[in-house]
Design a protein that fits this description.
Elements (H helix, E strand, L loop, with lengths): L1 H24 L10 E5 L6 H17 L3 E5 L6 H8 L7 E5 L1 H10 L7 H4 E10 L1 E6 L7 H10 L5 E4 L5 H12 L5 E4 L3 H10 L4 E4 L1 H9 L3 E7 L27 E8 L4 H16 L1 H8 L4 E2 L4 H22 L5
Parallel strand pairs: 1-2, 1-3, 6-7, 6-8
Antiparallel strand pairs: 3-10, 4-10, 4-11, 5-8, 5-9
Length: 330
């Protein structure tokens, strides 16, 4: 009996050690215990969808459970964002979003069904993209000095395009027109593809767009990049200066578009930390960097803390841009 008791005690002890070791290797034991749903508030095939699916694939490998992408487009991204805000805060539902539902919606719409700060926990920013000011071959400008001279000579006659009312491209273009008193007319498109097509064809004279969408037209000589709206030059356009370098130091011209990852508010902290750790490591990987660069995107080296800081810092600038642009909607 004593021998059996001793053996039983040893077995229990070794079992406890095994559990402790497993928990040490996995700071969130038992998570995830089923597939994770990644809600993307945009249609399949767009930039956000591409970023989300790349992240989902790698995240699933690390977490040991499939990460299933669920595209919920509509209402400027608010439909999908609201679905995540109302989901169970257990780490099995996350949001991967572009800027509008996260950074812009509460400035543009009087009725937003969620509060970003109260209804979500921030995980990390994933990637960022700077927009490029481009003109077609009918505009006699090679740089911002020549562009401004041309715009002044044609004050009230120039139109510009954007990939949607209230999009970052619209807001920053409107700010350029308003702050320099150029009296330009905005033409909104439903997405970036038709905007770039009409810009190339001369239907609109200039506009802001992503390098990923415009690089084919740039290489063909139908579009000419003039300046980068963002803090740094783009690796694939090393000869194109930032707006600050071109003599336009306004902080509004440094605004960039982000892709971000969030969870429902109240998600346990260890799970948030696990998701942040895995996502940040993926973003920093050479493989992810190469995949993002194909789309003109740059991985954001940060996590939840940087996400919160950038969100707070950008709020007054975005509020100002929305007011100037007239994009406020009831």
């Amino acid at each position: 009996m004593q021998i059996k008791t001793i053996l039983a005690t040893v077995a229990v002890s070794w079992g406890a050690v095994g559990v402790a070791q497993a928990q040490a290797g996995n700071p969130t034991p038992g998570y995830p215990n089923r597939p994770i749903t990644m809600v993307i508030p945009a249609a399949a095939g767009g930039g956000t969808d591409v970023v989300g699916r790349v992240l989902a694939e790698e995240l699933g490998k690390r977490l040991g459970q499939p990460v299933i992408v669920d595209n919920k487009a509509g209402a400027s991204g608010m439909l999908g964002a609201n679905a995540v805000a109302r989901a169970a805060p257990d780490g099995h539902t996350v949001l991967v979003s572009y800027s509008t539902p996260v950074f812009y919606a509460h400035h543009m719409f009087s009725k937003v069904p969620y509060d970003i700060r109260k209804d979500f926990d921030f995980i990390t920013q994933i990637a960022a993209t700077s927009l490029v000011l481009m003109v077609n071959d009918k505009v006699p400008a090679e740089n911002m000095k020549e562009f401004m001279a041309w715009a002044q000579q044609n004050k009230g006659k120039v139109n510009y395009g954007s990939y949607g009312m209230g999009s970052p491209g619209h807001l920053m273009s409107a700010y350029l027109s308003d702050s320099r008193k150029l009296n330009m007319t905005h033409v909104a498109y439903k997405s970036e593809s038709p905007h770039i097509q009409d810009l190339s064809a001369g239907v609109v004279s200039w506009g802001l767009g992503t390098l990923a969408a415009a690089q084919g037209q740039i290489k063909a000589g139908r579009l000419r990049p003039i300046a980068v709206f963002g803090p740094n030059r783009l690796a694939d356009l090393p000869g194109v200066p930032t707006m600050a370098e071109a003599g336009f130091p306004d902080p509004e011209f440094k605004t960039i578009a982000w892709f971000t990852m969030l969870a429902p508010a109240g998600t346990p902290k260890p799970i948030l930390q696990r998701l942040e750790k895995e996502a940040v490591e993926i973003i920093h990987s050479t493989q992810m960097k190469a995949r993002l660069q194909v789309f003109g995107l740059e991985g954001v080296k940060g996590g939840a803390a940087q996400f919160r800081n950038d969100f707070d810092a950008s709020n007054p600038i975005i509020e100002k841009l929305v007011k100037i642009s007239g994009a406020k909607q009831d």
